[in-house]
């Protein structure tokens, strides 16, 4: 055995005294980094305070035997060939294109707003060209698009804004669209054709056997140890490690020293119904009625066949588990203060939706984690051994 292989054995075997990385959070950010670092010989301990891996993308079978997403519907979509290829190492896929209807004025109409939405809402028979003219005639002039109201009224005018966006946004965020960054409602495009898919990305697919199986495959490496039901603060000083990777809420890490960073929460109400299908598409949005924003039916999304069906209602909340950063200027300013603290911690890396306060989709978190890995790889670890590819 060469000296270097002995050292490698020590690093990967049970005899090593120290973890190279302690990773807080076993969602996409933490699990991608654990997998990448383990693949180059680093020893990793990943902890999560929840009783499962996968973070908010975790899925499981409910009592009826239906695969559900306990933290709300998660549909994978990306334009990144790199992200898709990376995740494809851990799962096969089932092609799936999400469709959403919005319940407005007694009808269920396609959202994103498209040609059919306008024709059915107003009883018209416009062509794609005519609907473009229609949008131009009702759009309000907006000098500089700053807010989530500007984005929508500047494209489709006040009536469509009021019917599809204003109520939904006020419910979802507890704020008027005029108080939120443009980027929030800009997630939902406007179309002049009849494309009724919710996303237009190149890759749209669901992990064939679910997200949890995919995460299990990512974490199934002898260099990775997983510890669940554990807040990292319980073990931080008990388990020696060289570097910390943190994927929880950034303000909590710094004990809220500049005050709380607003995160929006949700309550999920899960139901199983004695019927094979509850609604015509994966998600129905309720912009103007009820306390919930949307109902999602999992079998559409997963493709599972079952004589019963499970759905989830989402009720937005101010308090509770943090799910969404709230994009608006004052929050960005407060986040900057936490970001400065984060940057001053050479032994800690902050990554993920909550730790970098970015309204990221799953693929964006994967991309951010892959970029972070490349940066960490360029940094020598404390013991002086450079990471190998
Ligand atoms: P998380 O998944 O939140 O993981 C962070 C983990 O850290 C958590 O498991 C948490 O328990 C753990 N943690 C926090 N603090 C501590 C601590 N002190 N000690 C130990 N562990 C700790 N994205 C899409 O691409 N498509 C979708 O359709 C989609 N739908 C969504 C629907 C909803 C309702 C929500 C809320 C999000 C949705 N997303 C969707 C976004 C997606 O969930 C996130 O982009 C992704 O899961 C973020 O991964 P993450 O690792 O950054 O964070
Ligand atoms: N939105 C809306 N009406 C809709 C759908 C979305 O007003 O029918 C707005 C709302 O502010 C929402 C945002 O657009 O929070 C982003 O929607 P998305 O479906 O991307 O939200 P997510 O799936 O991340 O909860």
From TrEMBL:
Highest taxon, organism lineage: Bacteria
Molecular function, one GO term: UDP-galactopyranose mutase activity
Keyword Signal: no
rRNA processing found in the keyword field: no
Listed SUPFAM superfamilies: FAD-linked reductases, C-terminal domain, Nucleotide-binding domain
InterPro entries: UDP-GALP_mutase (IPR004379), UDP-GalPyranose_mutase_C (IPR015899)
Keywords (A to Z) from UniProt: FAD, Flavoprotein, Isomerase
Annotated ranges, domain UDP-galactopyranose mutase C-terminal: 163-359
Protein name as catalogued: UDP-galactopyranose mutase
